What does this fold into?
Amino acid sequence: MNDYQTAMEGMKNALTSHDELIRSFNRSAYQERFQKYYLSLVGAMDAIETLYGTVLEKDTMLSNMAHALTASAAGIIESAPRRQREQIKINLSLTMAGYVFPALLRYQGASSKPLVDAVLKSWKESFPKSNLTPADYESIEAGFHRKFCFITTAACQMTGRADDCYELTLLRNYRDRYLLSLPGGEDLVNAYYDVAPSIVKHIGRREDASVIYQGIWKDYIAPCITLIEQGAYAACRDLYMEMVRDLKDRYFYLDPNGKNAA
It folds into this structure.
């Protein structure tokens, strides 16, 4: 297999294990799983780096590599049952943000940044509603210690809002500047992150996931935003805790068939 074929195959297969990668996208498993993922792409990135140093049409070569990846993503979505496609789009975007872009940037070759730019361009052409933004591994890993807003992020994605939207930014600042400053605040935040990823995963498996997230937005997140804007920080904390308790009771203990296993 020549360098071009090796590179193309690597890009085509970059997202094939997205289900497994998403399951490992948590504070305890991410570091080890990312290292394995990175090593699985090194051969393809070596081939791309060699091609980048030898071919005359560098932009065309990188565009072909990027298209191979995004075409693979489109194929994964199209082959899925229609009711699952929105959740798969979210999972693929998380895989891109959490694994693909960080792996490409970690390689630190002459081709790395131009390849990331080409992939991002191709991705946004294929998925115009995407708000995908590249980040390096260090930023993602540090983010697990700063904490992600899992439920709110999922609700924002389902309602068409960007990861850096006003609402998410406001809630993150509220968490960092208010909740974490309270006595016992860090324990409260940690308790949330112990259950939130499973809640999001179980909701994502349901056919009515978008309806559920619209309800979460209406009943909890939008009122929390209003309370923060009014300076009613304690009331927002109480409402957010109520949301987590409610969603935990409904969705945390589901078996693989979507039924409550508690």
The mean pLDDT is 84. The CA atoms of residues 120 and 187 lie 37 Å apart.
